[in-house]
Design goal:
The structure is a homodimer of 245-residue chains.
Chain A (H helix, E strand, L loop, with lengths): L10 E12 L2 E9 L8 E2 L2 E3 L6 H13 L5 E8 L10 E9 L13 E8 L10 H18 L13 H12 L5 H10 L3 E7 L9 E5 L1 H9 L23
Parallel strand pairs in A: 1-6
Antiparallel strand pairs in A: 1-2, 1-4, 2-3, 2-7, 5-6, 8-9
Chain A binds a DNA duplex (30 and 30 nucleotides) through α4.
Chain lengths: 245, 245
DNA sequence: AATCTTATTGTAAAATTGACAATATCCCTA
DNA sequence: TAGGGATATTGTCAATTTTACAATAAGATT
């Protein structure tokens, strides 16, 4: 292997776009960096991959150290490796996204982070490194995944209402959906269990609670079933309210 | 950056799944490795990424050195980084796939390759490293891409018949398609130019030649058009002829 | 001119999508 | 407990898309 030594001078990290859903809004978990580079800047949680660690394991570790969660949906999206993206040397990063039930855990700021905080996707304007670009890629991927596989449920509590589910899809796809058509479509897939329970603590007619039937989904999958939501017209672009200028 | 030095001992490569289409069959370009490790084994063309080289550039370089082609469709798919996947040390690889017009070039076996050869996808059983897994991932991705964006044309000569196009889709999607329905669907997208030319040299009624209208496609895209072929039932699984056993 | 081979084309039934608004139910307050 | 408030729930019809299906057309070959 003489001659190859020059190649063994790089490092790689994983960065994790952790999505959550709260108050009708799609959120991403960001950390305020506690060390160089970009100390004090908001960034995606991530870290170097250890020499004896698989990539997926590293992504799981980063997630666990920050949130304490282990059993979550996690998927590799894309690798970013522009030559000068990291001030310490050649560092490429493998981007993952994960979907967590936002109320299920307590943030556990890892040593690398001064603090961690949920941000509304739409309000994230810039981040350390090339993390904004990574976030955008993962958001695009999420849009596709959510139309293609029933993973939306990973973002909701185990019991949810159809309206909550619809709001989730609307937030992710950035469209408005027709209530009646959405319900028809979702229910026709026969992946939800009607729990015969009602929402509590709301000051109006409570909605029925449903649960995702994972077993049935696995069964469908093995029979060649394909979850598919049609792409629809874009929600008209929100006009930025004309700010002072 | 004290303490991080231990991370800067890795390397990364790009591996390229180069698809072509010939004789009604989807092909992949493999090389017989001319050096360690796995010398003499069939593998995906790939190489280390140079310290001052972007990932995409490396993929382009690998493709060019092998085929002489530069202006081809190329897309990053996934990164593979199992700890012990490479005998020389920690080496992760970023997998790309590309689509080439198989008759448009002469193979130029690079220094790393004893020889390069097109293999029918279905006949590739095992490869060096984890390359078979990489190939499978890229093939899956191609199936999705081809239903989602009109990139199939990248695999055909500039002028092609509708039957050729259909055979291409059938090879990639591993399904049979209905002739009339396929034509209706494709033509209704209004992305093909009827060249008013006929196929030559065939011993039967010659078919009309068409050309992909890239400009029109760009225009449609900017207007929010979405190319979409519906997923269809799987072609019934070919039963392996019972071999001697 | 007859034959061979592949190209080309249409129609009707079925399934899906998309648009659209009235009624039902529970909570809360007076 | 009656009325108002708020959201939940539900159905129909038109339009579009998908699917299944086979007869005729046209150039090449003999």
């Amino acid at each position: 292997m003489t001659g190859f030594n020059n190649f063994f001078k790089s490092a790689f990290t994983v960065d994790n776009v952790i999505f959550g859903f709260d108050e009708g809004d799609l959120k991403v978990l960001l950390i305020k960096r506690g060390e160089d580079p970009y100390e004090g800047k908001w960034a995606l949680p991530g870290y170097f991959v250890y020499p004896n660690e698989d990539l997926d394991s590293a992504a799981v570790r980063v997630l666990k150290e920050l949130t304490g969660l282990t059993d979550v949906y996690l998927e590799q999206v894309k690798t970013f490796g522009t030559v000068n993206r990291h001030p310490f040397g050649r560092v490429i990063t493998i981007a993952y996204f994960s979907l967590v039930k936002i109320n299920r855990y307590k943030l556990q700021p890892a040593s690398i982070a001064l603090k961690a905080k949920w941000h509304s996707i739409s309000e994230v304007k810039q981040l350390a490194f090339d993390h904004k670009e990574i976030l955008d890629s993962c958001f695009e991927r999420l849009k596709w995944v959510v139309r293609t596989r029933p993973v939306g449920f990973e973002l909701l509590p185990p019991k949810f209402t159809l309206t909550e589910l619809q709001h989730l899809y609307e937030a992710i796809l950035e469209t408005d959906l027709d209530k009646r058509n959405f319900r028809k479509k979702i229910l026709s897939m026969d992946l939800l269990v009607d729990l015969d329970e009602l929402q509590e603590g709301v000051a109006h007619r409570p909605a029925k609670l449903y649960q995702f039937d994972r077993e049935k989904y696995e069964k469908f999958l093995s029979e060649g079933f394909s979850f598919e939501l049609k792409e629809s017209k874009k929600k008209e672009v929100k006009k930025e309210p004309a700010t002072n200028s």
